[in-house]
Amino acid sequence: MDSQNIKPTLPQDEHIVENKQLSIWEALIPIFILVGMLAYNVFVFGNDALSGSNQFILLLGGAVAAIIGFFNKVTFAQMMEEVAENIKSTTGALLILLMVGALAGTWLISGIIPTMIYYGLQVLNPTIFLAACVIICAIISVATGSSWTTSATVGIALIGIADALGVPLGMTAGAVLSGSYFGDKISPMSDTTNLAPAMAGSDLFTHIRYMLYTSTPTIIITLIVFVIIGLNLETKGVADTNTLLEALEKSINVSPWLFIVPILVIFLIVKKTSPLIALLIGTLLGGVAALIFQPNIITAIGGGTTLDFSTGYKGMMNAITVETSIPTDNEALKGLFTSGGMSKMMGTIWLILCAMVFGGIMDAIGALTTISKALLKLFHTTFGLFASTVASCLTINITASDQYLSIVVPGKMYAKAFKDKGLAPENLSRTLEDSGTVTSVLVPWNTCGAYQSSVLGVDTLHYAGYAIFNWLSPFMTLLFAAFKIKIKMLTSK
After folding, report:
1. What is the distance of C-alpha 257 from the center of its chain?
2. How far apart are CA 81 and CA 139, in angstroms?
3. Which of 69, 87, 259, 311 has the lowest tally of Cβ within 10 angstroms?
4. Is 424 left (phi over 0), alpha (psi -120 to 50) or beta?
5. More confident residue, 252 or 336
6. What's the CA gap between 378 and 240, in Å, rounded?
7. What is the pLDDT of residue 491?
8. Confidence band (pLDDT; 50, 70, 90) for 11?
9. Residue 365 DSSP code
10. What does the pLDDT look like over 120-168, one tens digit per residue?
11. Helix or strand or coil: residue 324?
12. HSE (CB half, 13 Å, CA atoms) of 321?
């Protein structure tokens, strides 16, 4: 095994590590042990499992994989090199997480998020709210090409509106993610939408057109389910919206001018500005908006009696970095008027780093390739090939904890098998997105699951069942394969 340049910069240039000495059972041992330990840990700690114990379990899982690697002649240096490359690949995601925490802080004290809630309460009601979340997030995600940006901007506001309306937050987060990932999948600006056809050997717009065959019925079913839920939703303790609106007006200076900031951030993303730069600009503009529209709030957070440079600076830095809140006497608004800043994201960053250790060691010992090859050998029919691809994507999302690897590894492993079956490459690229891209958010320790849970403030296990589009997509692609619907053959070209 070559210990040099295991993982180049670009995901599509990912080097697949093979270890012919590693058996399938040895490759599966760390997975079985990890899942068992995580299940017990969640049983013991409940919702507090992500406070640190799950992170240590991931390190223990990595240690088990390392022991197996030692017995199969994989050196410690090779494992650490792959771990280092794995962690390096998450640098952008970790920085985005920090910037999302900073943005949430300045958007709170500036009144941007409270203003979104204020107007949202007047337009949306519990009956149409969940379906509206899906549609709104789908539109924004198509425009931006990013499910992460969508949840970090519009998603946060929708969670706040849901809390005020009394709509369960797990349902709301599921609706937000369903719409966000639908838009992410079909947007030509999405990185995964470009990566999947690159791995399969298709072209971008053929891939998007072919994805619509499975994604359209899936999103329609998702909308129907959320409409039905909305019609039968019995919200508990729904506050009088007039009372909430009055409390909002007393707490902040509500102004439609505040919408300029989020609109500008979305515009920057649409114009292909780096999400990190766009979020930084949004954070700074939020701070400026706080000085203009909410001088009393920023003065209070800065610990002063009058607004001056020192007080304003301290108020903004507190909002960006630590937990801050807008003073209010309304109990229903106290939770909405609190933000954790960058410090709130440290738990998620800790989780991602530990997950990358486990995934890096699993990759270094050749376990990911061994598992994919074993799945490929199990199936000989066309449907079996699709099922094997889906299973591989799901397995790598769980084991490698990385959305990109769930596309890259199966994409490289199965490209020849699809061609040998006479199947056009768009079949593979569509299956990679239907089972790799969208399911990453359902795994708590995956980078996507950890990110979305932290940003929306809803535990992964609480929203997973309601992320209907995400878990239904693999079933839809298998349904199309089973009944040979829109399965394009090479001979038909």
Report:
1. 30
2. 40
3. 259
4. beta
5. 252
6. 58
7. 63
8. low
9. T
10. 777 777 888 999 999 999 988 886 777 887 888 788 889 988 888 889 9
11. strand
12. 8
Give the position of tokens 């180049």. 8
Angle of helix 91-109 relative to helix 275-293, nearest 10 degrees, comes to 20
- What tokens appear for 380 in the block? 């000989």
Q: How many CA within 13 A on the CB side of residue 16? A: 22
Q: Which residues pair with 489 in a beta bridge?
A: 423
Please provide the average confidence, as pLDDT, over all residues in the chain.
84
Give the DSSP H or E segment for 339: strand 338-339
pLDDT tens digit sequence for 212-243: 999 999 999 999 999 999 998 876 544 456 77
Alpha-carbon span 466 to 307, nearest angstrom: 45
Other beta carbons less than 10 A from residue 193's beta carbon: 21
> Which residues, at least 6 apart from 220, have a Cβ–Cβ distance to it below 8 Å?
none
Tokens of 22: 């590693």
User: Which tokens sit at 386?
Assistant: 């699709």
Task: Give residue 54's pLDDT.
Answer: 79
Give alpha helix (H) positions in 342-467: 346-364, 367-378, 382-399, 405-420, 425-432, 447-456, 460-463
Tokens 């969670």 found at? 159
- Could you tell me which of 321, 316, 320, 323 has the C-alpha nearest to residue 337? 323
Instruction: Let me know if 174 is exposed, middle or buried by CB neighbors in 10 A (0-12, 13-18, 19+).
Output: buried
Q: Summarize pLDDT for 309-331 with one digit per residue, the tens.
A: 888 899 999 999 998 888 887 77
Please name the residue ranges forming H helices in 275-381: 275-293, 295-301, 309-321, 331-334, 346-364, 367-378
pLDDT value at 1 more than 90: no
Q: How many residues does the chain have?
A: 493
Instruction: Give the C-alpha separation, 177 to 183, whole Å.
Output: 10
Gyration radius (Cα) of the chain, Å = 23
Contacts of 416 (CB under 8 A, 6+ apart): none
- Token pair 């000085």 in the structure block, residue: 291
Residue pair 42/49 in contact by the 8 Å Cβ criterion: yes
Note whether 431 and 477 are within 8 A (CB). yes
Secondary structure of residue 187 in the 3-state scheme:
coil
Residue whose structure tokens are 């013991």: 44
Tokens 């240096």, residue located: 77
The predicted model scores a pTM of 0.74
